[in-house]
Amino acid sequence: MTSVDLPTNSAESGDGLASSVDGSLRASLNRSEQIEADLQVHPERYRMLTGDRPTGKLHLGHYFGSLTNRVRLQNLGLDSWVLVADYQVIYDRDGVGDLKANVYGAIADYLAAGIDPARSTIFAHSAVAPLNQLLLPFLSLVTDAELRRNPTVKDELANSDRPMSGLMLTFPVHQAADILFCKANIVPVGKDQLPHLELTRLIARRFDERYGRADQSRQVFPFADALLSSAPNILGLDGTKMSKSRGNVIELGMTADQTAKLIKKAKTDSDRHITYDPQNRPEVSNLLMLAALATGDDPVQIAEQVGDAGGGGLKRLVTEVINDHLAPIRERRAELVADQGYLVDVLRAGNTKANEVATQTLSEVRKAMQMDY
Ligand code: TRP
Fold first, then answer.
1. 107-158 tens-digit pLDDT
2. Which atom of ligand 1 is nearest to the CA of 88?
3. Is 88's C-beta closer than 6 angstroms to any atom of ligand 1?
4. 85 Cβ closer than 6 Å to some ligand 1 atom
5. What is the CATH number of domain 244-337?
6. Alpha-helix residue ranges (DSSP H) falling in the chain
7. Domain boundaries, the chain
């Protein structure tokens, strides 16, 4: 593994978890901007890790919200790692569902969207035993109060009637292992994931403090930064949060016809004159944003172009540009899905590489902890 010359995270010098949410969001945004600028000049300084829970099919929210950004970063020359977080499927549910289909479906989506297995390591964390072993020392570095303070965990405690599993309580620590096993220093995420990244940095720092390696040059783990994306938040076709159970999402793997039918049912409003006004016309504006993302054009201009053609005209345009944009991706996806053997090979190769790197990290951890017998 190449050692990366790490820019240090200056926002993370204080004690414990940040107290001011607004302040830390602003700091994270500033930091993201600095990194974004540096990436263009020094892509070799960065190892990026991102991941998804394989709970279902990937849709346009994933595609415009994160896949295109991953591909962009990969193409800039970053060492990129893509995690299929299969153990995270069971933190808030009893069964894994159609796990294998979801895993290979996600990998087909990744590759079709432009993730290149020669430049990005695609792996499943359940297949990387030394990664999971990091959980033991890491769990000793956090308190139960810190775990209960995590917003995702708190939300589950407040809003779910099922008892919280031990894995749910500790999943942010597992997520730290996902990031730290390969010493990733940037993690492109949405702002909901910021608390997890903060915990990851806390664990990295405490590990080095506790095991006498606070000297930065001999530090075992880097400080991982969030890279906040500038992607707009896309809603489902009914104007509410995207959710498979509401039937309001366009999956990457759908056909052009299925896409057309869904868009036809999309919610609009009674004003025939189309304008881009996210505040007052969320549904119409969301459709305009989808068209803008698919074409690279400005949503205001698209609105002017549609003008008095109304909701019907807008839907025809959105259907056309989305289907045009996705056509080559869908074609490639269909070829990949027909070649399961290839998808299996890609995942196995990624798992092998992840195991090599995780074994190396675990041996450094054991040495620091005097457990290298
Ligand atoms: N929690 C992430 C999600 O729900 C998935 C994930 C697991 C992840 N491990 C990660 C993301 C490590 C970034 C880094 O989408």
1. 999 999 999 999 999 999 999 999 999 999 999 999 999 999 999 999 999 9
2. 7
3. yes
4. yes
5. 1.10.240.10
6. 21-41, 60-62, 68-76, 99-113, 129-133, 135-139, 144-149, 151-159, 166-180, 194-210, 256-264, 282-295, 299-306, 310-337, 340-368
7. 11-233+340-368, 244-337
* Domain 11-233+340-368 -> CATH class: alpha beta
Ligand 1 atom, smallest distance to 184 CA: 14
User: 188 alpha carbon to ligand 1 midpoint, in Å?
Assistant: 10
Note the pLDDT tens digit of each residue in 189-211.
Answer: 988 999 999 999 999 999 999 98
Q: Look up residue 226 and give its amino acid.
A: A
Average model confidence (pLDDT) across the chain: 92
* Separation of CA 168 and ligand 1 centre (Å): 13
Segments of the chain scoring below 50 in pLDDT? 1-19
**117: Cβ below 6 Å to ligand 1?**
no
Can you give the pTM of this predicted structure?
0.91
Ligand 1 in contact with 200 (CB < 6 A)? no
